[in-house]
Amino acid sequence: MDTKRLNLSDSELRQIVNDHFTTCDSADQAYRIVQTALEPFSPCPEGFLADHYALKVTIERNGQTELLSFFVKCLPTENPVLRSYLEEIGSFRKESSVLQRIVGSIQRHCPWRTVAPRVHLAVEEQLLVMNNLKSNGYSVVKREGGLLEVVFVQQALETLANLHACSFVLEQKQGKRLPELFPTVLNENAWVQTSTSTRVKDVANVIKLYTELVKICDHWHGPRKQTILERLAPLIRKIYTYVEPSHEFRNCLNHGDLWCNNIMFKCDGQGQPIGCALVDYQLSRYVPPAYDINLLLYLTTSRQLRDENLTALLDHYYKCFVDTLERNQVNASEIYPRETFLRCCEHYRLAGLIHSTIISGEVTLPSKFLEEIFGDLQSTASFMPDTKVWICVKAFQADERYRKHLIELLDELFAYV
Hints:
alpha+beta, 2 domains, 3-stranded antiparallel β-sheet, CHK_kinase-like, EcKL, CHK kinase-like domain-containing protein, Kinase-like_dom_sf
């Protein structure tokens, strides 16, 4: 694949390589770019909101040839409807700003853990070139339905604890809240209520999807089914109240999109996780840390795992959170006393449950149905276009694992009906 597809100039290529070397303590060494190549990042699409490539740059320095690999994320070139949608929600502008301006500042306060990739180059609002975490030993852990084992969840919580804690550290050091330091960067772009927004139609279609699933599934019946159908829409739409900054609890940078493909793990020789980095910060927001925590737990664990391990997992997060603050000379009790933290987690439990329900219809689809979506431009034209609703319904009817997972999630959600 020709790198001309990216329209990168020679100076931009050198900027990418130069920035790479600044992270390797070898920025002063001369080099020559021999050739470049562009490849699909993986055989199957890694996400729904961009095209992903591996940029391979062969260089020569000190008489030796080296191959450098970078991760490239760009606006879709062959799907103008999706491209227009991404421009509407400002995903590239947001991710570029969050990673370069906010996460870059946060990362300096937790140098012992990689919380996100480093942006080497951002081109307007259409292209990002980052370090390839795969080259550093990170990978997405593929599990059935995206559900992880406890040790992986613990690692993800450690990274969240570092991200959240160092967000507070940054505010303490600067004497200002993030929205003051970075105006408009963390404005909500996922769950918005602007009448002309495609995302409003997406949420309406999610409600249509789950209404249809409740109707066709005999798991719910009689008066209970009717009550669910009457109250489903207002329950889903409660998400809008949770994505605004809280007036009761301290807010911080939240990743905001913690499904399995956005969580990369580094494992030892025995396959045990020893590190975790988060990718795709295009839907980040400024809310209390418990939003991210609950979102992670509902998207990556089964109900049984949560029932058996929730207290221990929250303890693990809080211990890491306190430790990170203390390593930066910040008193955790001034930010989140333990009792306040637990109260916050309980308050945002429904937020994580609603958010995970909204996106699980899509992100847990079996591969057969994902292929159908990626093979149809209209099915990828937004988060939940009409055509995708009926693909999800078809998957629910045909795939037992998918059906059981959604029923389990909906059962917990409907406890609030």
